[in-house]
From TrEMBL:
Coiled coil: none
E.C. designation(s): 2.6.1.16
Any one of the GO CC terms: cytosol
GO biological process: amino sugar biosynthetic process; carbohydrate metabolic process; fructose 6-phosphate metabolic process; protein N-linked glycosylation; UDP-N-acetylglucosamine metabolic process
Function (record text): Catalyzes the first step in hexosamine metabolism, converting fructose-6P into glucosamine-6P using glutamine as a nitrogen source.
HAMAP family referenced in this protein's UniProt entry, alphabetically: GlmS
Keywords: Aminotransferase, Cytoplasm, Glutamine amidotransferase, Repeat, Transferase
Annotated protein name in UniProt: Glutamine--fructose-6-phosphate aminotransferase [isomerizing]
The reaction(s) this protein catalyses: D-fructose 6-phosphate + L-glutamine = D-glucosamine 6-phosphate + L-glutamate
Length: 616
């Protein structure tokens, strides 16, 4: 998705803006641009299609300097990736960068054209530049002009705006798209993600929806809207960003994704840290109101997108089996537009790595608005402290995965699963489940990071197998029970980074249709942990073999499955059935990664995809 960086400092801010853009590259984008106030009344601008490196080349041929500027990486929504459509957009003395979508841009555009404004792009953003320019003539001052302009906007936006006649300030606005303010002794900065600004500060103000901010090199003043709809200065807490900046480097690894796959033993240990007692989960460690909230929960609506949705699907098996609490899992973009029936005692549990996914946030808000009396509350499982989802939920459980830069989610997923297992066990404790199984699972969870480390030893074996896999055009993934969502996740990983078409099915569903696809050119990846469904899964594998399908099976050493003609078996370290979904995720991540490397795709920034999907 698009990324914003803006700065006002006491020195040339171009290096800060460019470093910020590079740090936002992971979000996915197709063009980049920058605008600076070069002297009072003079705006300089450079925009380029493609990577930030291309913009850098443009700037080294024609450098820009200034104490104030805005910069942007654009992920096209309205209008193709082109120089004209790249941000910043300029109108008179105003330059604007924007994340989000202006839904009423067509009506505004007609109005502005009638007023004599000339449009040079196909974007929705350009209306904002012209609106601010028009309001500046009325109000004579940037903050008031931006305030008046945003009152006309419908949709979602984060904005950074500069005025060539006021080189001492940047104005920002937030409504539905994330925007943070970074504060240091040298200046003040805006970013769509704190990661963009970690080289200049670790102190951030997280803006709330409806906020405007005026940033000068001495600091910032935030203007919020009070209950009566009046805009006035508000105090927003300044928070220190917790993560070590080293965590955003690639280290010894060729790609972020591989680094993040190998970080999983530590990430999962961090997700467990301080939350396990000797034979039970420490519910108080989830937050002061956790015991009351989970104790009153009678059912759960679990809502998420993409990989996070798959984590929710696994959790349904755990929560129903371990706590006996009914659990419904739904894709956020569907939940938000449905007339959801939430019986009394419903907990809305949202899952998100970023905490800024537009559909998941909208589902949370939709639920709160529609049937507040029936929801006992909202719980977010999230990786980004201070994100919108965390701030707007009653309770949040941080996954502590650390920054995840690769677009394909890996450690965020396994730490979500770990956190969900803690929630399932907490519910079990509060809803009277027998203590022996709880104690056994707590013991196994302590051992989980080691088990994941052992599983990663399969890296070399899977890399070798990937060579034979890379020429296939389609793949089918099979699993049963809680491994079925893991099959879905394996298929998603393969398709998003290698561009091989992949589908996943519950193995028992094979004969109801997908079996028709099976022949020698269709590899089938199956997950075979030692659980009560292993014999049924073996029968499903026979159905594939009998039709000449090529099997790659990730199997428990005790499963009895052995290598044979048409069937490659990779032995995964033995583990208990409840934790097997977490363990079996790792070989599928490694398979997708190595196949993508053989195919030469852009592993960390796959085509057309964005890390944080902040538009609908
Ligand atoms: C995962 O590999 C994907 N990149 C994507 O499906 C992602 O999980 C989804 O967009 C949800 O993101 P979130 O967890 O930040 O809400």
């Amino acid at each position: 998705m698009c990324g914003i960086v803006a700065a006002v400092g006491s020195d040339n801010v171009l290096p800060i803006l460019m470093e910020g853009l590079k740090r936002l590259e992971y979000r996915g984008y197709d063009s980049a641009g920058v605008a600076l106030v070069e002297a009072p009344g003079k705006l300089g601008r450079a925009r380029e299609v493609g990577k930030v490196a291309a913009l850098e080349r443009l700037l080294s041929a024609a450098p820009l300097t200034g104490l104030t500027g805005v910069a942007h990486t654009r992920w096209a929504t309205h209008g193709e990736p082109s120089q004209d459509n790249a941000h910043p957009h300029v109108s008179g003395r105003i330059a604007v960068v924007h994340n989000g979508i202006i839904e009423n841009h067509q009506a505004l555009k007609a109005e502005l054209i009638a007023d004599g404004y000339v449009f040079t792009s196909a974007t929705d953003t350009e209306v904002v530049a012209h609106l601010v320019e028009r309001e500046l003539k009325v109000h004579g001052e940037l903050l008031a002009a931006v305030g008046a302009a945003v009152s006309r906007l419908e949709g979602a936006y984060a904005l950074g705006v500069i005025d060539a006649d006021r080189p001492d300030r940047v104005v920002g606005a937030r409504h539905g798209s994330p925007l943070v303010v970074g504060i240091s002794d040298q200046g003040c900065y805006l970013g769509s993600d704190p990661l963009a600004l970690l080289t200049v500060t670790d102190r951030f103000v997280y803006l709330e929806d409806g906020d405007l901010v005026e940033a000068t090199r001495k600091g910032c003043v935030v203007h919020g809207v009070d209950a009566a709809g009046i805009r006035q200065p508000v105090v927003r807490e300044v928070l220190r960003y917790e993560h070590d900046d080293q965590a955003v480097g690639k280290g010894e690894f060729e790609h972020y994704m591989l680094k993040e796959i190998h970080e999983q033993p530590v990430a999962v240990a961090n997700a467990l840290e301080g939350r396990l007692g000797s034979d039970q989960v420490l519910i108080e460690a989830f937050g002061p109101q956790a015991r009351q909230l989970l104790g009153r929960t009678r059912q759960i609506h679990l809502v998420a997108c993409g990989t996070s949705y798959h984590a929710g699907m696994v959790a349904r098996y755990w929560i129903e089996a371990l706590a006996g609490v009914p659990c419904q899992v739904e894709i956020a973009s569907e939940y938000r537009y449905r007339d959801v029936v939430a019986p009394p005692g419903t907990l809305l549990l949202t899952l998100s790595q970023s905490g800024e996914t537009a559909d998941t946030l909208a589902a949370l808000r939709h639920a709160r608005k529609r049937q507040e009396e029936n929801y006992v509350g909202t719980l977010a499982i999230c990786n980004v402290p201070g994100s919108s989802l965390v701030r707007e939920s009653d309770l949040s459980l941080m996954t502590h995965a650390g920054p995840e830069i690769g677009v394909a989610s890996t450690k965020a997923f396994t730490t979500q699963l770990t956190s969900l297992m803690l929630v399932a066990l907490a519910l079990r404790q509060l809803h009277g489940g027998d203590r022996d199984l709880t104690a056994r699972l707590v013991h196994r969870l302590r051992y989980l990071p080691t088990l994941l480390g052992d599983t990663l030893q399969l890296d070399g074996e899977i890399a070798a197998l990937a060579k034979g896999f890379a020429d296939y055009r389609h793949t089918l993934f099979l699993g049963r029970g809680a491994q079925m969502p893991i099959a879905l996740e394996g298929a998603l990983k393969l398709k998003e980074i290698s561009y091989i078409h992949a589908e996943a099915y519950p193995a028992g569903e094979l004969k109801h249709g997908p079996l028709a696809l099976i022949d020698g050119s269709m590899p089938v990846v199956a997950l075979a942990p030692m659980d009560e469904l292993i014999d049924k899964l073996k029968s499903n594998l026979q159905e594939v073999r009998a039709r000449g399908g090529q099997l790659l099976v990730f199997a428990d050493p005790e499963s009895g499955l052995e290598q044979e003609e048409g069937m490659t078996v990779v032995k995964v370290p033995g583990c208990c059935r409840f934790l097997a979904p977490i363990v079996y995720t790792l070989p599928l991540q490694l398979l997708a990664y190595h196949v993508a490397v053989v195919r030469g795709t852009d592993v960390d920034q796959p085509r057309n995809l964005a890390k944080s999907v902040t538009v609908e």
